[in-house]
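Entry type: protein chain
Record version: 2
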Amino acid sequence: MADVAVVGGGAIGGWLAAGLAAAGHDVTLCVRTPVEQLFVDDVEVPLRITADPTEVGPVPWVLVATKAQDTASAQPWLDRLLGGDSTVVVVQNGLDHEERVQARSVLPALAYAAVERIGPGRVRKHSLGWLEVPDTDRGRAFAELAGELKVNTVADFRTSAWRKLYANSAANPITALTLSRMGQLITGELRDLAARVLRETIEVSVADGADVDADAELATVLERWASMDPAGGSSMLYDRMAGRPMEHEYITGAVVRYAERHGHPAPLNHTLLTLLRALDQNH
């Protein structure tokens, strides 16, 4: 079994730490605000929790599970946790994960998990969830390490990153702006708006080289939403409800930036980004 550190004590960080602990690893959860224990679905997770970077040393695997906009806050931890053979697994939304951290070995990862932080040291799962990583030597090594934490390796990670962004580009901003849960997003006018945002994002990804069928991708996302817990939400919704900064620059902002780079129109994403930026400024 390996020594593993998870940086970030939010919903995804707690879910990852619990999965790796269940696989038998010695897990250290690195948090900003001290808590004594971690509970996932009211079950205590056996691990070590610290809020002090001076209490940790190099480990083979470090998972960064902060929100993308908070990546810089992970650097004091990385300065202590990284050794010559360490790999940083960046588990965040958006594109271009490798550009966010300074490390010799970086493995980008996508989390498909409906999880919610319901209080300090407490996480609720709305689905079992899984990760996707590139089909490389490091990716396969991490998938083997993860054990019960399901990890899929994919040949075309860039297309997979866009696929993850499809759902996020619609669900995150719309639920955050309207304070809606998934049950409201999959019916009526909000569903129609979400479908149009999805279509626009898919078209931008194709302009960027994503190897997808637009109609099939749209149908897949809508079908997945219909099967989700209607009481669940999005990470951006949870951040707004908690008064935390939102990650719109790495979700909607990424779509807008690549649309501009390729000269492809994205008026709906641009409108959502404008509204989200204004909402952030008013907090």
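Comment: The CA atoms of residues 54 and 80 lie 7 Å apart.
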